[in-house]
Design brief:
Length: 372
């Protein structure tokens, strides 16, 4: 048996929608991107116009850092238990990542660890909602308010997740989402940055398209109003980070199914948890009742993790490690992070996707319960 770790779910309706865009004669950033932005803002319950579609979550995070107007040497408190791309965006802007410790049973930053890392140079906090389980937005938010800090939320895993009844992404912080092939909501590849103000959203829209004050579609639309399409300004250096209409058309369709698919993910995880509760040498991640987890990942903590990974791999089960602690990489400064070390040294991601079967879960759990 070969059990996949991830498997994209591309609905036929999304294929039809994408095909329609390809036949329309306009496949770049245009009306479908605007529609997807509006629908995503509506889904989150935020004001229309605050969501800006981009080509990746990494691009969204980079733009979030850029619009905070940080200076070289400023510090951003962040997690080392995340995908390296999130913290690389800080290096793009010559900002210093300062790693705080995580809760060893959830993988998320804690308010206490953040508070311990604040200095006179701290300007922001970058939090990751690991596996789709929301960070303590209340506690970390209170620390940010106390010290006058901005918050960037890496919501790459958290499309559809909730904290205290509110959707992750509706907090009024800068919130970056991922729609890559294996995420809960996929557009083939893509991302979204949700901003706290319309002025910031307008700036991000310019930055995502080389800093131009009019993108190609807006220039074409302007012809009908007798505007000259070549007349625009470039007030600052931007990037080629925009989404296209093919991806956006898929996003509009897949967004309609996100909640029911996240319910299915929760059902699959409940089956895993029932089978693995109490297994010697294994801990299940912490889950508080005030949060709804979107379960992009189902991760466990295992003693002798590598031995278990080898056993599962040898028996046709594809697994993952999310993540190597980032300060182990040469580009970052080393930090003293005992809980992060405990977490990253034991974390193992088991197969989780919408086509996963009960038999496959039983097979995986049977291997685990057999020891390693």
């Amino acid at each position: 048996m070969k059990v996949r770790l991830f498997k994209p779910r591309i609905r036929e309706e999304a294929i039809t929608a994408a095909s329609g865009v390809m036949r329309s004669g306009w496949v770049g950033m245009g009306p479908k991107v605007a529609e997807f932005e509006a629908e995503f803002a509506k889904y989150l319950g935020v004001k229309a116009g605050l969501a800006v579609a981009v080509n990746t979550c990494t691009s969204a995070l980079h733009l979030a850092v850029r619009v905070l107007e940080l200076s070289e040497g400023d510090e951003v408190i962040t997690s080392a238990a995340t995908f390296v791309g999130a913290n690389e965006t800080l290096l793009y802007e010559r900002v210093r990542p300062v790693f705080a410790d995580v809760d060893g049973r959830s993988g998320n930053l804690t308010a206490e660890s953040v508070a311990a890392k604040v200095t006179a140079r701290t300007k922001a906090i970058l939090i990751t909602h690991f596996a789709g389980y929301a960070c303590d937005l209340e506690g970390i938010g209170a620390e940010a308010k106390k010290h006058g800090l901005k918050i960037i939320e890496d919501c790459a895993h958290a499309a559809g997740a909730k904290f205290q009844g509110r959707r992750v992404g509706s907090s009024g912080n800068l919130c970056a989402f991922s729609f890559d092939p294996i995420k809960n909501l996929t557009t083939g590849d893509g991302g979204m940055l949700v901003t706290p103000t319309e002025a910031m959203a307008a700036r991000v829209r310019n930055l995502r398209y080389m800093g131009l004050t009019k993108d190609a579609y807006r220039r074409v639309e302007g012809i009908a109003q007798h505007e000259r399409p070549w007349e625009y300004d470039v007030p600052e250096v931007g990037f080629r980070y925009h989404m296209n209409d093919i991806a956006a058309a898929m996003g509009v369709v897949h967004l309609k199914f996100l909640d029911e698919e996240n319910v299915r993910r929760n059902e699959l995880v409940a089956r895993y948890r029932a089978e693995l509760e109490g297994v010697r040498g294994m801990e299940l991640l912490r889950h508080e009742e005030d949060r709804w987890c979107s379960y992009h990942l189902f991760a466990v903590l295992a003693e002798r993790r590598d031995a278990l990974a080898d056993k599962l791999s040898a028996n046709g089960v594809i697994i993952g490690v999310h993540y190597t602690r980032n300060d182990a990489y040469s580009i970052f400064e080393k930090a003293e992070l005992p809980e992060t070390e405990r977490f990253c040294g034991r974390v193992l991601s088991l197969p989780l996707h919408l086509d996963l079967t009960e038999d496959e879960i039983q097979y995986v759990c049977g291997l685990i319960k057999g020891g390693w």
